[in-house]
Amino acid sequence: MKTEMPWWRVDFGEAAARAAFDAVEGRFMTLGPITRQFEERMAHLLGVPHVIATSSGTAALTLALLEAGIGPGDEVIVPDRTWIATAHAVLLLGATPVFADVEADRPVLDVEAFKAAAGPRTRAVLPVHLNGRAVDMPALRREAEQRGILVIEDACQALFSRSQEGGYLGCHSRCGCFSLSIGKAISSGQGGFVTTHDGEIARRLVMARTHGTSDITMAHWEMPGGNFRMWDLPAAIALTQLDLLEKRTADLHRVYQRYQQALRRFAFLELLPVRTELGELPLYVECMSRERARIVEHLAAAGIQARPYYANLDTAPQFSRRAGVSYARSQKYADECFVLPCGPDRGDDEIDRVIEVLSTFPGSDEA
């Protein structure tokens, strides 16, 4: 079955192609001046003193945990609803991810579930701002501080989503971790970065990013690390996308609002809301329906790709599941949530086509 409309659409544009060519022509094939320019510009835009660019969002998460000394014997609390990279970053360092359920009406970490999951071996918590939705960070930070638990934010789906504490999500804790992969508001194809307000943490992140040394030429080993570096070609692409930041964010709001208006007429699904009025940026257009499988199949028959949301982390065989713990709220999202075709370059005509096909779904009042 041919897919004529993929679930995500973004156009990097001619400027990105030229920037990539210029980076190669200038022999900037490793971490260099263009990466540093990207770090400085992103730090300015987010209002933080330190940005450390990485090769991916997964690398950013792993680097932040590594710098914090997370390792074997430690537990890190992770929401059951997130992309699996959040938990893999914990697992790959030899620590144990401990899953906690999400809020009743939003797929983000529930603070009461965090409190129930915290124990004597808990060293850190990774709140995930899924699809730009803010975790209750003041409450979480207060509870974590009382227990001596580090807070490292996973803002990989929340770049330029605003925080009610002022500024942006991912910028109010020990570290914030971001992704620049293809399905993000700003992308370099692959890439990521870590934010922090602490100069010493930033120094250690920079060292850990390059195998724990502060001087790769006259290398001496100061701390554990790895190769988590971004390089200048994707940094050059990311800079061109930052030039489009205002348009990108406006387009994400446009897509979300067009669906929001049109989907109200359908009783067989509901839009999973993002609090745009509070500054949350709707990266994806998520819907809930008990008829998910049939809806996805119906759209696919018309050449339209909808993406069922990923399974809960507690179902992955590489993780230990706590006996007697329920993830009922998370399970509802795993069973019913899916993403309609979206992305900053999604045309209004394409959205209207999706709505037209949904109106013919068996069970629709318009079918």
Please give a quick description of this structure.
The protein is 37% helix and 13% strand. The chain has 367 residues and is an alpha/beta fold.
Describe the SSE topology.
Blueprint: H1 13-25, H2 33-46, E1 50-54, H3 57-67, E2 75-79, H4 85-92, E3 96-100, H5 111-117, E4 122-125, H6 137-146, E5 150-154, E6 175-179, E7 192-196, H7 199-209, H8 232-242, H9 245-263, E8 270-271, E9 285-288, H10 292-301, E10 307-308, H11 328-336, E11 337-340, H12 348-358
Parallel strand pairs: 2-3, 2-4, 4-5, 5-6
Antiparallel strand pairs: 1-7, 6-7, 8-9, 9-11, 10-11
Helix pairs in contact: 1-8, 2-8, 3-4, 3-7
List keywords for this structure.
alpha/beta; 367 residues; single chain; globular; four-stranded antiparallel β-sheet; seven-stranded mixed β-sheet; 12 helices; Aspartate Aminotransferase, domain 1; 2 domains; Aspartate Aminotransferase, domain 2
